[in-house]
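FW: tagging you since you asked about this chain on Friday. Here's the raw sequence from the shared folder, copied in full. Didn't touch anything.
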Amino acid sequence: MFGWKKTPPIRTLIGEGTVISGEIRFADGLRVDGDVQGNITSTGEGRTLLVISEKARVHGKVRAGHVIINGTVHGPVTAEDLLELQPKARIVGDVKYEALEMHQGATIDGELHPLKSEDKPGLKLAASAPSVPSAPSAPQAERG
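HL: got it, structure written out here
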């Protein structure tokens, strides 16, 4: 969808039953199956993937390129590329996204805000294209 050749690899896993308190910064991919009490932020210039699984709970800000949520997030979510909300996703907080895919059953208790990219070219409507000279019209018959 975004011209990506492949999804970044998930290099880090926070397992089910694990509780982490504090800020998490990651590159490439991160999967959360446990509980995080703190912000989760992607770093670096490359593509990033964050997966918050069905049993995961996050209390803090979430920010990454491609974000997939099927668990619970209490805090704002920013997906710089794509946000996928699977059927058991629960978000309490505002959501910012470039593109959004939301499955039936997912809930958001907050506001939705599309990201406005400054470096993207504006829409160019066909009506604003340079005009093409029209063909001469046929002479109209005179009415008498």
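FW: Confidence is low (pLDDT under 50) at residues 119-124.
HL: agreed, and The CA atoms of residues 48 and 108 lie 23 Å apart.
FW: great, closing this out.
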